[in-house]
Amino acid sequence: MKLILTTAVPHLGVAGDVVEVKDGYGRNYLLPQGCAIVHNRGAAKQIEGIQRARNARTIRDNEHALRLREQLEALTVQVPANVASSGKLFGAVTGSDIAVAVKKAGGPALDKRTIKPLKPIKRLGNHAVQIRLTDAVKFRLTIEVVPAA
Predict the structure, then answer these.
(1) What is the DSSP code string of 40-53?
(2) How do 121-123 and 88-93 pair as beta strands?
(3) Domain 2-57 falls under CATH 3.40.50.460
(4) CA nearest 77: which of 6, 126, 138?
(5) Could you tell me which of 63, 57, 55, 54 has the C-alpha nearest to residue 137?
(6) Which residues form the Ribosomal protein L9 domain (predicted)?
(7) Residue 66: which H helix or E strand, with range?
(8) Which CATH number applies to 62-147?
(9) What is the DSSP letter of 27?
(10) 129 CB burial (10 A radius; 0-12, 13-18, 19+)
(11) Is the pTM of this model over 0.70?
């Protein structure tokens, strides 16, 4: 079965790759999970869009990663969150929340999997998060969790 991956699948490929898999694996896992779409002439046009989105988020090399690091360290990132009167959050701040806040603050589009809070963020205030752009470029970014308007 010929499929187009829409997300990264371990040991198979990344979004936008055209892969040949056994019928059962494609029908019973990849398609129901939304990890792939069936390859046909119309879907082949979607490959370009998927690959463009992937390239926008991809770090090209260590030099590019170092430039992104400088850009991120210059930002003031405020993450809005719903808060109880005691100052405790309803839920926790996740990597995807931080990625959206970085983009809104004028930073680059980051993949949520590159952002790891050092401990669960469940209170207002300043918190440190680990950002791993490449294996060689890792750093801590301080974010501020503020009440949502």
Answers:
(1) -HHHHHHHHHHHHH
(2) antiparallel
(3) no
(4) 126
(5) 63
(6) 13-40
(7) helix 62-73
(8) 3.10.430.100
(9) I
(10) buried
(11) no
**Residue 68: both structure tokens together:** 């992104």
Backbone angles phi, psi at 66, to 5 degrees: -65, -35
- List the beta strands (DSSP E) in the chain: 2-5, 18-20, 36-38, 77-81, 88-93, 115-117, 121-123, 125-132, 138-147
Which residue ranges does the chain devote to CATH 3.10.430.100?
Answer: 62-147
DSSP classification of residue 87: S
- Retrieve residue 38's tokens: 């069936």
Q: What is the pLDDT, as a whole number, of residue 98? A: 94
> How do the residues of the chain divide into helix, strand and coil, expressed in percent and rounded to 5?
35, 30, 35
Kindly give, in sequence order, each residue whose CB lies less than 8 Å from that of residue 21, ignoring residues fewer than 6 positions away. Answer: 1, 3, 12, 30
